[in-house]
Amino acid sequence: MSHNKETTTMSSNNMFSKGKKSGHECELRPGGMLVQKRDSNSDRNSDSAAMSTIMVKVKYGSAYHELRVSSHASFGELKKMLRECTGLHAQDQKLMFKKKERDSKSYLDVERVRDGSKLVLFEKIESRERRMLETLRIAKKEKTSKSLKEINHQVQPLAHKVSALEAGASTGEVVAELHIESLTENLMRILITLNEIFAEGDLKLQKSEQVRRVQKHIETLDTLKMKREKNVPQKIKAVEEQQLKHWDSVVVTTKWETFD
């Protein structure tokens, strides 16, 4: 008996040592069988070798869609394929398997989806509405940003002209009233456009900064106009009033021609 027990012990030791020499980790299965231990990667590779793709049947409304997909794909990848079939955005899809909604990050093989498995697809109405609102919000933000950039380009040349008038007035140069009125009118139009723009967050700060900038230029022109009123002789004022009337009539005529 002792001899047999010793022989059995030596035999078991030889089995373990053999497993170690081959470089593989072993595990003892129920019944005393010693086998090579399989990790998840080896399982996945062997499964892939046996069956890399499966056919699943998805019911959406009254229609059925048969899709061939990798057995190791995620539900999210399956949703992307279903989008091509149904036109339903992946974020708006509710994919059910065995009466339970499956997460997009879950894998088909892990959730035991097999060849010939049946799934049911529903549309997430609330998700679609949220996504549409978010799309509209982004589009509106992009439009506001574009409008503010365009206004900034419009203000730049006007700002240079205001600075030029201010510099000329500081050296004693007589500033033409026509120039002051024209610049003021253009800046007022821009100010009205800015007030009509709805902005949020960073864009709201950008809008407020542009409003302050335009208002500052208008205030500068008002100051130049008041100084001019005090210093310009009446004779020059009378000539300029005639120029202004002529300029107004040209503007009105131009507008009528445009409408015609």
Q: Secondary-structure map with pairings?
A:
Layout: H1 2-21, E1 26-28, E2 34-36, H2 40-50, E3 53-60, E4 63-70, H3 75-86, E5 93-97, E6 100-101, E7 118-123, H4 125-170, H5 177-195, H6 201-231, H7 234-259
Helix pairs in contact: 4-5, 4-6, 5-6
Describe the structure.
The protein has 260 residues and is of the alpha+beta class. Helices cover 63% and strands 13% of the residues. It is built from 7 helices and 7 strands, in the order αββαββαβββαααα. It has helices at residues 2-21, 40-50, 75-86, 125-170, 177-195, 201-231, 234-259; strands spanning 26-28, 34-36, 53-60, 63-70, 93-97, 100-101, 118-123. The protein has a 5-stranded mixed sheet, with helices on one face. The protein has a two-stranded antiparallel sheet with strand order 1-2. Helix 4 runs antiparallel to helix 5, helix 4 runs parallel beside helix 6 and helix 5 runs antiparallel to helix 6 (201-231). The longest helix is centred in the middle third of the chain and has 46 residues, at 125-170. The termini are far apart. One of its GO terms (cellular component) is cytoplasm. InterPro entries: BAG_chaperone_regulator, BAG_dom_sf, BAG_domain, Ubiquitin-like_dom, Ubiquitin-like_domsf. This is Ubiquitin-like domain-containing protein. GO terms for molecular function: adenyl-nucleotide exchange factor activity; protein-folding chaperone binding.
